[in-house]
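Schema walk-through. Below, the input block comes first and the output block second. Nothing else is stored per chain. Lengths vary across the set, and this one has 456 residues.
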Amino acid sequence: MTPPPGTTAAPRGSPPGGSLREVVQLAYPVVLAQMSMTAMGVVDSAMVGRLGATPLAAVGFGSVWLWTFLTIFYGTASGVQTFVSQADGAGTPQRCGAWAWQAGYAVVPAAAVAMLVIAFGMEPLLAWLGPSAELQSTTVAYILPRLPGEVAMAAGMALSSFFRGIGDTRTPLYTTLAANVVNAVLDYGLIFGRLGLPEWGVAGAGAATSAGSWLAAVLLFVAFQRGRVRRRYETRPVRSDGAAIRRFLRVGAPIGGQWCIEMSAFALFTTLVARMGDDSMAASQAFVMLLSLSFMQAHGIEIAASTLVGRYVGSGEPDSAVRSLRSALQIGAILAGAIALAFLAIPELLLRIFTDDPAIVALGKPLLALGALFQLFDAGAIITQGALRGAGDTRWPFVVHVLLGWGLLLPAAWAFGVLLEGGLTGAWLAGLLQVAALAAILGWRFRSGAWRHIRI
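--- output ---
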């Protein structure tokens, strides 16, 4: 790991803090890790898609609602990165390890309780949401074996955020790759009854994801306790500290709340799509999986931007924090542009990764044309949001997400998709408007410089 900015004099002729080179060095392992996480969902969807439209729709519908219920814990846990990066940037690495422990005390038990509530409440919720009866039963079959892995996801998020906060983006990459291999092998075995394993169909996809999540969490904890990390960052177990947990939650909880609000709006958006029919939901799921190729790259760059901004805020170098975001946005634009070209050039080939059903492919092709523009705005919003998070500015973005998710996305999706009879494409046009507004407002917030005065 490179020393925190500001702790030593920069060599003569070295690029200024926040340069493209610095962002790339930190970001590329995170991008690869995020793409590997995406691959887990893509593999699930691609294999399950061979079982038919309803199983593919169930994986998408179930994943969205499961993430909605539990994302508040994952988002809150990600706040570890802000505290760790600022402590490391301030030259006090011995304070870093305790933040991961306090985050674990705050979110992991709560995630376990939420898992049990979901297990007992999922069937009546799905009945109330109103998709087809077949989609309801298939979604439950997928979610139940996946649920145990969500507790591991909460712990893994806190540990990954610790490593990314200290600038170690490779350890989360390696653990994610290992989890992805396990998921792919178990998907093949448990979905189709191969490799001597039982044939569980869509439930096998849920079980495989759960197993991969647990493997990643265990590997991250082993790395968290290895000698060099343990000595430098004081990662030995510590007692829960009420004052430290409250301080952590003041920054982390708005992140979790923002993720939850954003996902709840998207979950209701997805429910609107599911009510258009299983084919529409299957096409939307294939589109979301393809969109995640850009989405997760942007999240990787976001994490790098958050780490660098946090470090430079901690070391008293705000101009380097600004350069970090500018460099991150340039990288994000290049990668998103490449995805946009693929969406426009080979839409049918991309959709056939998930299904050969001509009706689903026909529904999905207009979405990819829309998605070429959507993911450019989305990348800008995601990366800017990460920079604000690194500076500790988490409450203001939370409010913006509430207003745009519930005040723009949902009403516009209903108006364009249902009232104006635009169907699936009309609904996603509302998503484009929402993400364009989000990118513009978050960009204005960072340029305003309000984050320079925030203290965590």
